[in-house]
Design a protein that fits this description.
single chain; alpha/beta; Purple Acid Phosphatase, chain A, domain 2; 2 domains; 6-stranded mixed sheet; 33 strands; 27% strand; disordered N terminus; 2',3'-cyclic-nucleotide 2'-phosphodiesterase/3'-nucleotidase; metal-binding; hydrolase
């Protein structure tokens, strides 16, 4: 029977006291006396002296609501330039193959977080027909699929908290396996809010069962990125610090092997700067500084790492790390060899690899399982919300001011102006930040469907308004302009290397709607914004503005200057995506002439990069 959250929390506490959660039952872990009995049994000839065995731990991460190989923003089968496929239905096929090859009793399947946010499928069951409903709540499609595939454990990701703690809890209740988070603590007493770890038994046919401990760790940045949802309720201390606390506990509870499922990259730069004392991507540091870890399933950074070896500084032992590509495009496999001798299991070798889901068909059992939910969401995203006078494309948004990004700015600015009307800030100019989230977004000419707007704003961000000065707006833009390579006048332009400098992702490149400016990329970072003006006049450093900004940025995401500490003059709990949909419905017609126009340019010594 499925276990509920209370079962897992209770049994996790028992685990810390010396019991192991195994296949949904609590059993005694190995004590020194039990180990001695095993040794004695071997000496009497009742057990093999040595027996090498193998097992495989499979892992996914950053699924972001992908069950089927389907793109709800385009209402078509998913495809990209590399012809990758996505979805748990594909993962299921690979998992079945590995289990058939290795034997079910020699495999485990885990996930490293970011499960319930990212597609209109998961949005629908968080907001439209929510799983938190008091009467007859629907089943969550990700829970349905993961239960059917047979996951053994999953770690929390930061995006689990985008819809608030009640949605995370409702999702957790629907799972047949534990949702782990050793560093997700109740704010009042700093006790675990989720099970920190689970210990699973594998019966390998020699000696006593092998006990595999799975520790779940999530990202401390949740405290910043979803501050409105977690402040005063949960705290998220450092990954390395909590691994140091729990790995010895897992060993004491009888774990022969320790695997960490960490929603944290290996060695990426932090996006929250000095706002927290812990790094964002700490999996590499954890492997190097916490003894006793055998392998780490890495998440959060949406990268493919088949295998990374990190030597532990204390033991000298290599720890194996692997990160499968996001959206169920890849499956990581940790292949273990272990040896049983004198009553103990010892890891003799570990390696990792990734399997590509585009090599297999979808598991039709999973396709059928969520067919009704899929159909509901397809109907939902295809509702017509308005029309557009011309096609708006995001294709050139990384290096040109395009109308589709101005549309985001206009919607946000209008929402804030309406909210501030009649108040003390009503007469201040309102600006708005926007970023090119989705490189394939298009608002078509003619009919505009809900999925067109949703595909433009793919994150669950909400809207805030912060009070900034002209000087602070300039600092904000200077920081954003680090996105561009420095390019001397007359030097050839390579669009592939022009952007994403300093490891800056597209979602951390902001333009600001409502002011005009040039970005002189012949100049070094910090000295690029020129001709900054508002309504045709140079911006005064002391002039006050209201900046409409998403909650991720307002809470410090991307570490932009000033905004996180600026005075908040308004905030809204509804997603910006819904604000956009409502704006289009109210207008009826999207006319680029109402909001488009070139207000920022890339230049070199005053000469525009593009004519």
């Amino acid at each position: 029977m499925p276990l509920n959250r209370r079962d897992f929390v209770t049994r996790s506490a028992a685990t810390a006291a010396g019991a192991a959660l195994v296949g949904g039952a609590s059993v005694a872990a190995a004590s020194p006396a039990a180990a001695a009995d095993a040794d004695s049994a071997e000496s009497r000839g009742h057990g093999p002296a040595k027996a090498k065995q193998t097992f495989t731990v499979m892992g996914t991460t950053d699924l972001h609501g992908r069950v089927l190989n389907w793109d709800y923003f385009t209402d078509a089968e998913y495809d990209d330039k590399a012809h990758n496929d996505v979805g748990l239905a594909k993962i299921s096929t690979l998992v079945k193959q590995i289990r058939a090859e290795k034997g079910c009793e020699r495999t485990l399947l885990i996930d490293a977080g970011d499960i319930i946010q990212g597609t209109q499928l998961t949005y629908y069951f968080a907001r439209v027909e929510p799983i938190t409903a008091k009467k007859n709540p629907p089943r969550h499609p990700m829970a349905e699929a993961m239960n059917a595939i047979g996951y053994d454990a999953a770690a929390l990701g930061n995006h689990e908290f985008n819809y608030g703690i009640p949605v995370v809890r409702a999702f957790e209740e629907q799972l047949d396996f534990p949702l782990l988070g050793a560093n997700a603590l109740h704010a009042k007493n700093e006790k675990p809010a989720f099970p920190p770890y689970v210990i699973k038994e594998l019966h390998l046919g020699h000696g006593r069962p092998l006990r595999v401990g799975i520790l779940g760790l999530t990202n401390p940045g949740i405290a910043i990125w979803d501050k409105a949802n977690v402040q005063g309720q949960m705290v998220f201390p450092g990954i390395v610090e909590m691994a140091k606390k729990y790995v010895p506990r897992m060993k004491a509870a009888g774990a022969d092997v320790v695997i960490v499922s960490a929603h944290s990259g290996i060695d990426e730069p932090s996006s929250y700067g000095d706002q927290l004392p812990w790094p964002e991507d700490a999996s590499g540091e954890m492997a190097a500084t916490v003894p006793g870890i055998d392998a780490v399933l890495v998440g959060h950074t949406h990268k493919e790492v088949a295998q990374r070896l990190v030597a532990n500084k204390e033991t000298g032992k290599n720890v194996v790390l692997s990160e499968p590509l996001c959206w169920a495009q890849r499956l990581s496999c940790f292949d273990f060899e272990v040896e049983f001798a004198k009553g103990h299991w010892t890891v003799t070798s570990v390696s990792s690899r990734v399997l590509n889901t585009n090599t297999v068909p979808e598991d039709q059992a999973i396709v059928r399982l969520i067919a009704d939910q899929h159909k509901k969401v397809v109907t939902y995203v295809n509702q017509v919300i308005g029309t557009c006078k011309a096609e708006l494309s995001i294709a050139e948004a990384r290096f040109k001011d395009v109308a589709i990004i101005d549309l985001i700015g206009r919607v946000q600015a209008d929402a804030v102006k309406a909210a501030l009307a009649g108040g003390q800030y009503a007469n201040l100019p309102v600006l708005a930040q926007a970023a090119p989230f989705n490189r394939t977004a298009v608002i078509p000419a003619g009919e505009v469907k809900l999925r067109d707007a949703a595909g433009l704003y793919i994150y669950e961000n909400t809207l805030e308004a912060r009070l900034l000065t002209g000087a602070q707006i300039k600092d904000y833009l200077e920081y954003s302009a680090k996105y561009y390579a420095q390019l001397a006048p007359g030097a050839p332009i390579n669009l592939d290397t022009l952007t994403n400098q300093a490891d800056t992702p597209d979602y951390n490149y902001d333009s600001v709607y409502g002011v005009s400016y040039d970005i002189d990329i012949s100049q070094p970072v910090g000295s690029r914004i020129v001709n900054l003006s508002y309504e045709g006049k140079p911006v005064d450093a002391a002039q006050q503005f209201v900046l409409a900004v998403n909650n991720y940025r307002a809470n410090g995401g991307g570490n932009f200057p000033h905004v996180a500490t600026a005075t908040k003059v308004w905030s809204n709990s509804d997603e910006i995506r819904n604000t956009m949909i409502a704006w289009v419905k109210a207008k009826g017609v999207i006319d680029p002439a109402d909001f488009g126009g070139v207000t920022w340019r890339l230049v070199r010594a005053g000469v525009p990069l593009f004519q």
